[in-house]
């Protein structure tokens, strides 16, 4: 999944900054059809987080219904998913802070 850049914000880019504005866009794809670059890595990380959450949901349902063959591994799976979600939240917060810091920098 390729996320298109946000346009029309009324931001005037300085001369020579066109390459920086297009840095997240990739011109090609890597093997497997996935996009390369930052956008591709972000998509893969989000997909991995989603798979982790799905497996935790399945494990917790199995634990709740009593069909889990190994309750300890179900608890570990849920804890892993919780830690992954906390990490994703912290990364989002840091990225937001970094963007705000860049936008507040005076040229």
Write a structural description.
This protein has 107 residues and is an all-alpha fold. Helix content is 62%, strand content 0%. The longest helix has 34 residues, at 71-104. The chain is elongated. The protein starts with 17 loop residues before the first helix and ends with a helix. The model is unreliable at 16-31 (pLDDT under 50).
Which descriptors apply to this entry?
107 residues; elongated; 3 helices; 62% helix; mainly alpha
Low-confidence segments, given as residue ranges, are 16-31
Distance between the termini: 34 Å
Strand proportion? under 5%
Rg (C-alpha, Å): 20 Å
N-to-C SSE series? Answer: HHH
- Tell me, rounded to a whole number, the average pLDDT: 79
Approximately how much helix is present in the residues?
55-70%
Helical stretch tally? 3
Number of strands: 0
Sketch the major β-sheet. none
What coarse outline follows from CA principal-axis ratios?
Answer: elongated
Which class of secondary structure composition applies to the elements?
A: mainly alpha
Summarize the structure in short.
By secondary structure, the protein is mainly α. It contains three helices and no strands.
SSE inventory with pairings:
Elements: H1 18-21, H2 38-65, H3 71-104
């Amino acid at each position: 999944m390729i996320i298109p850049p946000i346009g029309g914000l009324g931001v005037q880019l300085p001369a020579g900054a066109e390459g920086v504005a297009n840095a997240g866009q990739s011109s090609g794809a890597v093997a497997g059809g996935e996009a390369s670059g930052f956008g591709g890595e972000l998509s893969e990380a989000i997909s991995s987080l989603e798979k982790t959450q799905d497996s935790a949901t399945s494990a917790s349902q199995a634990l709740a219904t009593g069909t889990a063959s190994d309750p300890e591994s179900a608890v570990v799976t849920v804890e892993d998913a919780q830690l992954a979600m906390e990490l994703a939240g912290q990364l989002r917060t840091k990225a937001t802070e970094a963007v705000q810091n860049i936008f507040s920098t005076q040229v």
